[in-house]
Specification:
single chain; alpha/beta; Rossmann fold; 2 domains; 16 strands; elongated
């Protein structure tokens, strides 16, 4: 996708070029050495960037060119880590909501660590991938960075040679044409004099002492396909020093990040439907549908108490049980990993949707994985085996309000089912739902058994 460049101004007056990809919950990527936005647009390494894949899963990605690089102000003299944190602050203060996920990779890692410690109220989740805390060790132990250090003295006199040498080292000397194009992107991103100043300052970075102060949920990732030689020992050191951090080696960074954020309670937003689906909606292909959303309560804490493997096994078993219950009640579970540790389903009957939700709640309790459960009804857009629309978002928000095992429904569902569902409803009042313009009246479902027990 082609980024739409916009600008934010830092507290010290530097204009920072940034772009937002997608419309879902945001993941912010601090800029890398030559400007992340610039390299995304101009480097042949673009397919390795995770933005497109994460957007396809329903997230939005925010990145930018740091000071002195790409489309941001070039004429600067502050190359410190503090300056780079001010760049990040300017962007997130302009476009990010109160809380967002922060993903620091390579030279963006120290920026992410520093910001997360300074602003724990803004960072919902922290991802650190193929990164480090000590700049001197980074330039000593990672071969490509060691070459960058060794050729630094030649940069001003032979900028083409230096960028081409670094690009070949970065690509592992396997693709000379790709390295040539990457070197061209580097030269257009940054002047040789600026590159020298940046590298000299980068060697002084040391955020090791900040690791113990990180208070947000954190995952440390060694992404093998894009990890440069020598980075694993540096990345491996991070997790033991960060309270409750998880360490993962993977060949699929996008899936790991997606799963980590969903476990923490973030719900990605499905991509906007295609033009064909929009046209189908206009012509009447949508209809009133009961939408059921169930999500495991506090999956992060359960993972920590049970262990990742045990939790995953229990969650898979519960997922199969929930989908069977949904089908037994004439519902359609949406296949695929769409909503974290939960299930999304649609029904043509509000009564059957409520009955399925109550049965799913019992199954969650019996399986030791209690659920948040919510129902709403409205028009949805169907595309292949997925559903879209504001009604889906409302159902997920209502589920998030429920106590463990409790089924909450919107006024719309209650009106459709109150004479046929064999249950009663307890008024929970008007509720403001995130991302929904008007408050929604919410009701708790009280089964006939519960009603008889309370009346007795």
């Amino acid at each position: 996708m082609e980024p739409r460049i916009q600008y934010a101004k830092t507290s010290d007056g530097v204009n920072i070029a940034y772009a937002v990809f997608g419309t879902g919950p945001p993941i912010v990527f601090p800029s890398l050495v030559f400007g992340s936005l610039h390299m995304y647009k101009n480097s042949p390494a673009r397919p390795q960037q995770p933005y497109d894949a994460l957007v396809s899963l329903g997230w939005s990605c925010i990145t930018y060119d740091s000071r002195g690089t790409g489309s941001s102000d070039r004429d600067i003299d502050d190359w410190t880590l503090d300056g780079r944190v001010r760049d990040l602050e300017a962007v997130v203060n302009r476009v990010a909501p109160d809380r967002f996920a922060l993903c620091g990779t390579l030279l963006g890692g120290p920026t992410a660590v520093s910001y997360a410690v300074q602003h724990p109220d803004r960072v919902a989740h922290l991802v650190l991938s193929n990164t480090f805390t000590n700049g001197s060790e980074w330039h000593e132990l990672v071969p490509a960075q060691r070459i960058a250090r060794q050729t630094l003295r030649d940069a001003e006199n032979d900028w083409e040679f230096v960028t081409l040498t670094f690009a070949n080292a970065y690509t592992g000397y396997t693709d000379s044409e790709r390295a040539r194009r990457m070197a061209e992107a580097m030269r257009s991103a940054m002047a040789a004099k600026s590159y020298i100043a940046f590298r000299q300052e980068a060697e002084t970075i040391d955020v090791t002492d900040l690791l113990g102060q990180i208070s947000v949920p954190t995952i440390v990732i060694h992404d093998r396909p894009s990890g440069p030689d020598g980075v694993w020992p540096l990345t491996q050191r991070l997790a033991p020093s960060i309270p409750n951090a998880r360490l993962v080696e993977t060949d699929d960074l996008v899936s790991v990040v997606d799963e980590f954020l969903r476990e923490g309670g973030l719900v990605p937003t499905p991509q906007a439907p295609s033009m064909e689906v929009a046209e189908a909606r206009v012509s009447g292909s949508t209809g009133m549908t009961a939408i059921f959303f169930a999500d495991i309560v506090d999956s992060t804490a359960l993972t920590e108490s049970l262990g990742d493997a045990a939790f995953r096994a229990k969650a898979r078993d519960l997922d199969a049980t929930l989908r069977t219950i949904i089908r037994d009640h004439s519902g359609t579970p949406i296949e695929g990993k769409l909503l974290g540790d939960g299930v999304l389903a649609v029904f043509t009957s509000a009564r059957q949707a409520i009955e399925a939700a109550l049965a799913c709640g019992k199954a969650g309790d019996d399986g030791g994985l209690p659920l948040h459960l919510g129902l709403h009804a409205g028009d949805v857009i169907r595309e292949e085996n997925n559903v879209y629309g504001g009604a889906v978002n409302i159902a997920s928000r209502i589920a998030g309000l429920s106590a463990p095992g409790e089924v909450l429904v919107s006024e719309t569902v209650r009106s459709l089912a109150r004479t046929s569902a064999g249950v009663q409803f307890e008024d929970r009042g008007e509720q403001a739902l995130k991302g929904v313009g008007e408050a929604v009246r919410v009701w708790a479902v009280v089964s006939s058994t519960d009603t008889e027990r309370m009346s007795g």
